[in-house]
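Escalated from tier 1: iron/sulfur cluster holo job.
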Amino acid sequence: MGRGRSRPNARELRVLLDQHAGGLAACARCTFDDPLIKPVVSSSREPLAMLVGQAPGKTEVIDRRPFAGRAGRTMFRWFADVGISEPVARRRIYIAAITRCFPGSSPSGRGDRVPSPFQMSNCSSWLEREVEIIAPRVMILVGRLAIERFLDAKPLSELVGRVHPVSELPGSPLAIPLPHPSGASSWIHMPGHADLVRRALRLIAEHLPELVRESARERSVA
Ligand code: SF4
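Tier 2 regenerated the structure:
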C-alpha cells in the first residue's frame, strides 16, 4: 500500500474514527450566520472505502447525516441497483466531503452555494486525516469539486466509468468518480452519460464485493 503504512485493525480504526469524529463535530473554524449550521459527520466506524462529496445541504443540517436529502436518495438508489443497500453503504463507506458544513443556498436559487476557498482550505485537514486513518481501498468521488481534489481536471465524460489509481495517498486507493446526484447538473441527461454512470457503479460493486455480499446476507435475514 502507498506511503508504507499498514491499515489499522478493526478496533484501532473504531477508536481513531471516534476520536476524529468528536473533534470534527466540534469544529468552529468557519463562522455561519445560522447557529444550526454545524459539521455533518459520517457514522461509519468499519469502513473499507470512502466517499467524498461537496458539502452537506439543508436537509443534512436538520437530519445530521450526510446525503440524507434528495441527492442522497438518488445516490443510494444507484448503489442499490448494483446490490449495495443503504445501511451497508453507510456502515462500510465513510462519507466525507470537501467541507462539512452547509455553505448556504446558491444566490441563483438553483442548488447550494459552492463552498468558498476559505471554507475549503479550513476544512481540508479533516479530509486528509480521514484518508490517513482509513487508508481506503476505494474512494468514490462524487461531483466535480471532489473529483478535482484528487484527480486531474478533465471532462467528466473522460473520468466517469473508469478506475483511477491514486498511488500517492495512504492505502493507494482506486478512485471511482460519479457525477453529483443532486439533479442540479444536466451532465447526466446528455447522450451516453447514464451508461458511464452505470459502468462506474458496476466498478464500485466489483471492487467492493464485501458490500454486495453483506447487503445480500442482510436482505436474506430481514
Ligand atoms: S466547514 Fe469544515 S472547517 Fe469550517 S467549521 Fe465546518 S467543519 Fe469546520
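The two ends are 37 Å apart (CA to CA).
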